[in-house]
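Sample 3 of the quickstart, ligand 2-acetamido-2-deoxy-beta-D-glucopyranose:
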Amino acid sequence: MKGTSSSNNILFFIVRNIFLLLLLTCHGANFAFAAAPVGGRGGKWDLLSSNIGITAMHMQLLNNDRVVIYDRTDFGASNISLPYGKCRYDQNDTSLKVDCSAHSVEYDVASNTIRPLMVQTDVWCSSGSISPDGSLVQTGGFNDGEKVVRVFKPCNGATSAICDWQEIPGALIQRRWYATNHILPDGRQIVIGGRRTFNYEFIPKTSWAHNAYSLPFLVQTHVPGVENNLYPFVFLNVDGNLFIFANNRAILFDYTKNVVVKNYSEIPDGDPRNYPSTGSAVLLPLNLQAQDQEVEAEVLVCGGAPKGSFISAQNHSTFLGALNTCGRVRITDPDPKWTMETMPLARTMGDMVTLPNGHVLIINGAAKGTGGWENGRDPVLEPVIYRPDNPLGSRFEVQNSSPIPRMYHSTAVLLRDGRVLVGGSNPHVYYNFTGVNFPTELRLEAFSPSYLDSSFDYLRPQIISRAPQYTIGYGQHVPIWFTVPGVVDTNLVKVTMVAPGFNTHSFTMNQRLLVLASENMRQVGIKDYQINVVTPNNAKLAPPGYYMFFVVHQTIPSVGIWVKIQ
Ligand SMILES: *[C@@H]1O[C@H](CO)[C@@H](O)[C@H](O)[C@H]1NC(C)=O
Ligand SMILES: *[C@@H]1O[C@H](CO)[C@@H](O)[C@H](O)[C@H]1NC(C)=O
Ligand SMILES: *[C@@H]1O[C@H](CO)[C@@H](O)[C@H](O)[C@H]1NC(C)=O
Ligand SMILES: *[C@@H]1O[C@H](CO)[C@@H](O)[C@H](O)[C@H]1NC(C)=O
Ligand SMILES: *[C@@H]1O[C@H](CO)[C@@H](O)[C@H](O)[C@H]1NC(C)=O
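Result:
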């Protein structure tokens, strides 16, 4: 927030406060008991659309609260036409040489509507990342799309109904199919691995980083005929190195020197966690509250399928039980050790979504089989919430179930209002709606964690902001004003900063939540408060770009606001 916008805010705040005061004088103050949400089954499901036209295989939330969704161009005709009577003529397409249907859509959260988009080349099983200017930069795919980069810029106003993907052919040196991307502190992204691609490269290219650089770790963790190391779980550590988990172990990697800084021990059960075993992983919340201490980072890896599961499903139609374990490791420790935990439900192809309050939602997937065409059985319809700060043994809580199986090629992303958008599921080579197990799924749902229950409205902060978006720098002191209807426990207020991640194949690239240091929390009106937060010190903690800021009171989050850090 620049000086002028701050003083505007203060002015706005004062005017608004007088208005509120008048309102409250008329209605009287309402008192409520401050109580933390209690245990038990929670959460609620809503069907948002019975047909978005495509299957949501990849999803990315943009800073205009629209979600870019795409599947693959060689699925055949989808259920939504390309805009303006366009058709795609592609001699290389493995399904339809002329396809007038769309394989990408834009979902507008506010209006709950869909708009078709056009991708030219095959985006199947690709990767991506938001760049610092808010554009989605998508990389690779299959066939004629394997070396293509595609950019989607968020659009508003006059262009909002017509803006579309822009393709950059040959922008990648190597084919990238099942790769993982991560945004870097300098604003570029790294693209790591992919099928039969044991190296990494950067987008955009710079003079000192214009090649593909080999990564032997991807060869070492590769199982011939099975893989088990695709879509590696990659997180930017607080020291600027990358934590890369593939198959059943991890390294800490200095991408600037192409050097393995640390080998982590194998996850204790030794079972594979990456595609097609398809567990998931998150970087747990980075807590910046103790400003004088070094920031610690922890990673949680959950679910997947045991060794042999893929061949068993693929070659023998025998679907083995999925893994019910999670491994948690403090990646910044000098001598890191895995701690194993048991989930209430076994799960392969689950997604892990970091919620605004720092809890982790484990959602989607199956209890038997693996990732890959037709390889899953027994959908797990109940999400589970994991509370990282609870004592070991009391962290998981099973949530209410959805009626819709979300098998292979399903997705989940956090929205700014705290809901989780859930879509996709297509374990078939084409769109198949009848005569198959788990028909191609075109329905879009939202899961509302119990923090959205109206019974918690009295605890819920609402950020008072006039400008829709703020720009902030690193290491700045920034005031945030908010209001809460009920009694506020000032010790239980925190501000979190969440990066919007790119979700596909049970992994969310760039998923990151920071709990900001805060000071001088004080009441400034009848129900109004000011909290001063300190933004992260450097871009290793929070790479540049757009984040959602949430005020969280007793685990109940506000609606977020978009903030750009640079
Ligand atoms: C979508 O599916 C419905 C019902 O099956 C069908 O009537 C409609 O023509 C389809 N639309 C497109 C664009 O394929
Ligand atoms: C088909 O692929 C070849 C090689 O990958 C490429 O040269 C050609 O331009 C592609 N054709 C179309 C219509 O995309
Ligand atoms: C990590 O392990 C590899 C072999 O798997 C070894 O070559 C390398 O020296 C190790 N690096 C460190 C930093 O321990
Ligand atoms: C599984 O089936 C594939 C394709 O039919 C075959 O190439 C492979 O050798 C089989 N693997 C095993 C371990 O039987
Ligand atoms: C799936 O859809 C494709 C393309 O429409 C069709 O050829 C195939 O027979 C379908 N498979 C089943 C099992 O119905």
